[in-house]
Amino acid sequence: MSLTLVHKSVSTSTLIPGSQQPLTSEASREEYARAETSMRTAVEWYRKECAAAESRANGRVTPNVLAPVRVKVSGNAREGVVESAGGGLGVRLEQVATVGVRDGTMLLVTVFDEHTLKQVEQAIYEAKIPNVVPQKQDSRTIKIPMPKPTVEARHAIYTAQQRKAEDIRVQIRKQHQTSIKKGKYEKRSIELTEFQKLADRYIADVDQILANLKKATGAK
């Protein structure tokens, strides 16, 4: 019995020349992965920054408002914290106190050790967070009334994130250039195209995050 072989024709218009297959070398794929991780990390950090900024602009009170606070405490004020030669060591607020929210309009800071109350109060002042004015309530508690942000305050919040957006764009472009220099790719190579697409995609993400914040804050 004879067999008849049938050959199915394939349109050459759907084929990609071997020289143009995206990132065919192991080295370029590894560098692409490194670059993407770096860019993604930067953009995700910025996304979180803008989310926190939007909360402040909309008057939502959360403990995260006090995230920038660093408290200088003596070595015996908190176990595990050692006094530095300069007279103190800055630690995160949550290491020496809890932060709660009352009625959605006030932050309450309760220190673990009442001897650190003055240091915590001073640290909150020194953090220079807009509209944050600590008020001593008792030997272990500080209250911070949080007023609704004004139009000017919302604009200032947006402007600050604008500056950070440009910093992230610069960081992405630097990573792009670093990857290109490492590969020493030829002009018009598929690698140059793919790395450029990668940078453009993450810069577009930054632009969109900032645009969303602008809309949320009502900034002009």
From TrEMBL:
Domain of life: Eukaryota
Keyword check for Protein biosynthesis: yes
Domain Ribosome recycling factor: 57-215
GO BP annotations, alphabetical order: translation
Regions annotated as coiled coil: none
Reported function: Necessary for protein synthesis in mitochondria. Functions as a ribosome recycling factor in mitochondria.
Protein name: Ribosome recycling factor domain-containing protein
Organism encoding this protein: Amanita thiersii Skay4041
